[in-house]
Every structure is written in structure tokens, then in C-alpha cells.
Design a protein that fits this description.
With 351 residues, the chain is mostly beta strands. The chain has helices at 2-23, 123-128, and strands spanning 27-40, 51-56, 63-73, 76-85, 103-110, 113-121, 151-162, 165-172, 194-203, 206-216, 226-238, 241-252, 259-273, 276-287, 294-304, 309-320, 340-350. The two termini are 45 Å apart. Keywords: Cell outer membrane, Ion transport, Membrane, Porin, Signal, Transmembrane, Transmembrane beta strand, Transport.
Length: 351
Amino acid sequence: MKTDGKYLVAAAMGSLLTGAAEAQSSVTLYGVMDAGIEYVSHAGVDGSGSAYRVTSGNAAASRWGLRGSEDLGGGVSAIFVLESGFFADTGMVGLGGRLFGRRAFVGIAGPWGQVTLGRQNNTLFDFFIPFDTNRYAPYSVLAHDAQFAGRADNAIKYTGDFGNLTISGLYSAGYESTISGGSEVPGVQRVGQEIGAGASYTAGKLGMAFVYDQRRGTSVASAGNVERRYAAGLIYTSGPFTAMAGYRFLQSGLVNPAIRSNLYWLGGAYAMKPALTLRAGIYRTDVRASDDDAISYTLQLAYNLSKLTEVYLNASYMDNKGRSTLGVASATKTAQGVGQTGVAAGIKHIF
């Protein structure tokens, strides 16, 4: 009888879980694992010493996530995404230790577009991956401006896809919640505020995008300080060839002294074989009224072992002038005016 009782309980639980699963729509587990070996020259804070290391995310950031939707009828669905970034070389959680630091949002989608709330990619992130030569690998436009892969907490976003036209708008009541008092301060709504808007359009072989991004300081004292970015990109594809070009103007009052800078880039990709692609690009940061400029050269060779697995070789050289300290990879630094070389080889698997 005890055995029968356990069976009945198990059967009842299974029935409940099955009913719950049927009530929900599909939920998908997905992710990327990327790890390799990297050499970086002048890797020390003072510009001395070279680094030889195992690194994560040389071609694409390692991550795992859950996404799902429920059909609400009439072409409308409830949607959600939970996405966690991590380091494949150590297994540690990335993005400041956030469990779902890449994305965490829920919303409604329909023929008119979708509205989502939570931690989300900013509009620069959403629109400019196709316009970057290395598609946001660390040796890319991110080495010059990491805000192209920026995210915002406490954000509401609208995105609409209408044939060849895509539009998007974002408002964040506080883009960085890990700072104490850095967002959603009662009576001071501008603290940590971010506003973004963008559009892309494709006409045959030509594509273009335009984005505006604005952020305010993350304290009551700096809430009046504003940082603005204006970006435009072009892409042209013909057979195995793809050419990209981009421009970004930065006007930042979040640093002292305030700066204005131009960022230009030009690159291309050539599918030498169905499984083998070569990418090359050049990026230049020009700080106005200053000699603190930088130019980087990037090269990537990628070979697809299958639809889901790729091996790659990346290389970059960053030439810093004046007091510029940009490293070859995103969010890295070297000593003032010191050039840096980076080479990384590894494997990327999508699941």
C-alpha cells in the first residue's frame, strides 16, 4: 500500500507539472561557450610586461539564457528573456556578479512591435552589431567605446519591425543599480537616467542605421551632467563581400574635463569559402582639441567546423598617441601613449 501511495502521489505531481507546462508556451535554453589562448603586449599598468593567458569570449561573450513566449491570442504574446554572462576560463559570473547581468526582461509582443521592461541592451547595442567589422568581439569598436555594448537597468523599451524598417526607443530610470544611490532616487528622477532612440533601414544590398544615446550622472550631484552619443552606420553586401563603415560623435560631461571626440571605422568581410571568413577593420578615435588619439587595426579569421562550432584567430594592434590609454580589447587599458598588440586563438560553440 505504501508503494501504491507513493505512485499515486508521483502520478498526481506529474499530472500537475504536465498541466503547468501545457499552460505555458515554449521555453528555450540557449548559450555560447567561447574560450581561447591570448597574448597581449605591454599588459602591465605601467606598460611593461606581456601576458600569456587563457581567456573567455574572444569571438563572442560566453553566456547562457532562457527565453520564452506565451500565445495570448490575436497575434499577441507574452515574452521574457533571462541571460547570464560568465567567464568560460574560470566559471565565474561576469558583469559585476549579476546572476542575469546580460538581460532580464518581460514584456508583450504583437504585430505593432514589442514593449519590454527590465535590464536590457541599449539602442547602440541593438543596432550596431552588423555594422562592426568584428561583430563586437573584444578586438572591435568596443575597444574604443564600450558603450556600444551597454545595458540599462530599470528600462522600458519599444521595438518595432516593419519590413525593411526597424525602430526602437528606450528610457531607463536608472541604468546602473549597483551604485549606491545611483538610480531611481526619490525627487531626483534624472539620477542615472538613460534615453535612447534608433532606426535601421535596408534597401537591397545597402543597410543603414542611426542611433542617439544619452546618459546622466549616477549621483545627485552629477545628475545635471550629460553624456551624448550620435552614431551612424552603413553596410553593403554583394555575394561573398561585405563592407561596413561607421561614425560616432561623443559629447561627455560625465568626465572632468569634459570631452568631445569622433570615432570612425571602416572594415570588411570576405567569405573565402562557405566555412572560412576573413574580417579586417580599422578604427580611429579623434579627441577634439587634443593629441590623445588612438587608431587600431584588427584582423579575424574564422572557420566553421559545423553550424554551431567555430575556431578562430584574432589579432589587433592599438596605436596610442599622447595620453591615450586604450587597450586592444574592450574595457582594457595600457600606459599613456603606449601601443599594444593582441593575438587570440580559440573555439566558440553555440548551443
